[in-house]
Amino acid sequence: MPIRTKQIEQARALAELHVPGEPLVLFNVWDAGSALAMKEAGAEAIATGSWSVAAAHGYEDGEQLPFELVLANLERIVRAIPDLPVTIDIESGYGPSAVEVRKHVRQIVEAGAVGINIEDQQIGGEGLYAVEEQSRRIAAAREAAEDAGVPLFLNARCDVFFHTDSAEHGNTQMDEAIRRAHAYAEAGANGLFVPGLSDLRLIEALCQSSPLPVNIMVGGASSPSQRELAKAGVARVSYGPHPYLQMMTALKEAGRKALQKDH
């Protein structure tokens, strides 16, 4: 099968896995080795997390990892698991302008990804991009995918809940998230990612009001269960940096035991 035809089929398969009430579960990876482990664990798709990828390369999150390393890492993952859809976290698109986003998304698609996360947080700036500006950036990402001939699954990350305490989450944040969801859908997004939201009542309300399937991040002590999220109507559950943190904790503990001189 031609590479591009296979990529198109994988992009469509990834989209079909987003079913409200029967969420796609993504235990996020950071390199080819962890991607292979998730394949062997039974994953239906592979997703990276930017924090984990950066940490594994010795960098801080926030687009500190050079973009050429992001691409090289993606290419190794795709090469290691050619039979599974791969979606990659590209943070804010590695550039504030729509032109830069379009360029980078085209490179991501050419490297083999069939999905991306792109966030509305201003990397190195203050707060979120205005809805109109982020919509232009999402539209640019969609245009890049269309130019490449791949129906990329564009998961629009909305950070209105992420930088506020969960105790403060309420109608103000919900109204803004719904407003952004409608704008991002019109701009060409396929999904809505709302990290930081853990209140099941608000999650259910967002699922009912969003024109896009909703992605929730779990892993913390206060996270709802997958069963609860499915009942609320969530279509995608991701684990963000938590798999990497669990792996590093286990590695350090094993290392401490091995390095004990009296064992």
From TrEMBL:
Pfam families tied to this protein: PEP_mutase
Signal peptide: none
GO MF entry, a single one: lyase activity
Keyword field: Lyase
Xref: Gene3D superfamilies: Phosphoenolpyruvate-binding domains
Entry annotated with the keyword Lyase: yes
InterPro entries recorded: ICL/PEPM, Pyrv/PenolPyrv_kinase-like_dom, Pyrv_kinase-like_dom_sf
Alphabetized PANTHER family for the sequence: CARBOXYPHOSPHONOENOLPYRUVATE PHOSPHONOMUTASE-LIKE PROTEIN (AFU_ORTHOLOGUE AFUA_5G07230) (PTHR42905:SF16), PHOSPHOENOLPYRUVATE CARBOXYLASE (PTHR42905)
Name of the molecule in the record: Isocitrate lyase/phosphoenolpyruvate mutase family protein
Taxonomic source organism: Paenibacillus timonensis
